[in-house]
Design goal:
The structure holds 2 protein chains of 2 kinds.
Chain A: H1 2-18, E1 75-77, H2 90-102, E2 108-113, H3 120-140, E3 148-154, H4 165-171, E4 173-178
Parallel strand pairs in A: 2-3
Antiparallel strand pairs in A: 1-4, 2-4
Helix pairs in contact in A: 2-3
Chain B: H1 2-14, E1 20-27, E2 35-40, E3 46-50, H2 64-73, E4 77-80, H3 97-102, E5 107-115, E6 121-129, E7 134-143, H4 148-164, E8 173-180, E9 183-190, E10 197-202, E11 206-211, E12 217-222, E13 229-234, E14 240-244, E15 250-255, E16 262-266, E17 273-277, E18 285-286, E19 294-299, E20 305-310, E21 317-322, E22 329-330, E23 338-343, E24 349-356, E25 359-366, E26 372-374, E27 382-386, E28 392-399, E29 402-409, E30 415-419, E31 424-430
Parallel strand pairs in B: 3-4, 3-5
Antiparallel strand pairs in B: 1-10, 2-30, 5-6, 6-7, 8-9, 8-31, 9-10, 11-12, 12-13, 13-14, 15-16, 16-17, 17-18, 19-20, 20-21, 21-22, 23-24, 24-25, 25-26, 27-28, 28-29, 29-30
The chains are: A alpha+beta, B mainly beta.
Chain lengths: ~180, ~425
Amino acid sequence: MRKILTIAILGGMLALLGGCHSAPVKPETPVENRDLNAAPKPADGATGNPTTESGPEQKGLDPINDPKNILSKRSIYFDYDKFDIQDKYKPLIESHAKHLANHPERKMLIQGNCDERGSREYNLALGQKRADAAKKALLLLGARDAQVEAVSLGEEKPRALGKDEAAYAENRRDDLLYNGEF
Amino acid sequence: MTAFFNFARAWRSLYGFALVCAVLCLNPGAQAQLTIEITGGGASRIPVAIAPFAGSGLLPQALVGVIRADLERSGLFRMVETPNFDPPLTEAQNVSYAEWKSRLTDALVVGSVGTAADGRFEVRFRLHDVVKQTQLGGVAYTMTAAQTRTTAHHIADYIYEKLIGDRGVFSTRIAYVVKQGPRFELQIADADGAGAQTALVSKEPIISATWSPDGTRIAYVSFENKKPVIYIHSLLTGNRTVLANYKGSNSAPAWAPDGSRLAVVLSRDGGSQIFSVKPDGSDLQRLTTSSAIDTEPFYSPDGQFLYFTSDRGGGPQIYRIPATGGDAQRITFEGSYNVTPRVSPDGKSLAYIARRGGGFQLMLLDLASKQTQALTDGNADESPSFAPNGKIILYATEIGGRGHLSAVSSDGRVHQRLSLQTGDAREPSWGPYGK
């Protein structure tokens, strides 16, 4: 929740400072942006009923912001120099894939991040691999390609500023952002 | 520094209006002075005497001091003390070589400053070889007072070339990124760190700045749209254009030596792959097709090859392909992490960063003999950039947890540190020779 709040607050600040972002604090009414050529395809390999959200859904609260809902969890962590998604993140990926499959109007930006050691551009490419890995998993589980963009912030936007292993581990991360949050 | 902080305050108040501000024409008010200290020098330095120029009191700022500082900073010269002659020496007088030999100097510069008919200044100098007792030449410049530093750099370049045999780089410029708290600035400064000007201010990171071969534009990667996008920024107009903003990440721009194309790294087709594109963003062509990371392209100076970093063999190593695409040839073999290839301007050697014993250090590879040499022993050295004469490599390093720029001569002997009083300096790029 703190993470979401931070994103919301940062988003709000950026909106105030930037003047070019409409208030991204609340999820906006989804913009109709349907590609007529991209017929919704059935979820490859998706299990379970695609119409049910995982976790309870409170009235009035978007499940992606509900701290009781797994959809509010948005970070996936990686080992040093690695970009494979660990098994423990499978439920998280599955839930977001289902949510995207059920809400074709929603878009997601996956930002891959790295710790600061090594070349900035190589780390950018490594962060891209991490973001691509999450995107690939989401598409396999039903999200549409046009819904998901995988990008890298490399080592440029560290969340933890220390120079120890704990900080590095925090920064080896994918963040999953829904439209309105980036 | 005062001027810089006033400028910084001015910018802060402007943030309400724009997230990113391209500074229209470089703002001369932005002074973030880099100071340079030599941290190691060559064993034998050529002793040079530069006599005070007659009439230099006419100028509002030092001329001879800048020439001396340039030469001294190169680590190749030692300044010989000169008395204040009365009347001052000028380039028009005959030189007593015996007298200067007794002052233990190998070379002597004498000169004068006068006013031209149009109110500008005329600077003349002559360079003497005291050992051989001959004149090596001289030049006259007509300049405004504001061009004093530039003229001094040109005189230093002339002296350097006559005494060393290589073209001097004192009159060239460097670009780098300064991070001050949450603010990122792309700055352009003289090669001696003076006259820093801000070309771009952003709330988001700027990386991989690189000069166009004609020195009029800088390509860089900006994160202002929450993802990496490549821009080309005109230093003449302050206008910027998007070079590549495809789905996914866009990064690592590298100019072809003739300026006709840039190599870029795009993830639009999955993975990070090398493409080339015209400077206006048209005619995109894919150059690598691997399932690995291919990034950090850099053209050989003849334009024939692209050197790049790839993890196709497991860890990151340096490879090259023909500039129009084709089979890759592996270049580095020692160690498990070799990145950021930069070919020297003469095409004979390759600077790169290697991970050695947990630290990241600047290496130089002789492409013919395959011999490698560690040029630095730092812990976090990165982003090397050759001076256009190939004699100095500028790079980013970390000292006391802060980003600094450093430079090392390509023989590894002379080390310089370029420091900012506050903030992090990073991502240096040495500009080309002026026209």
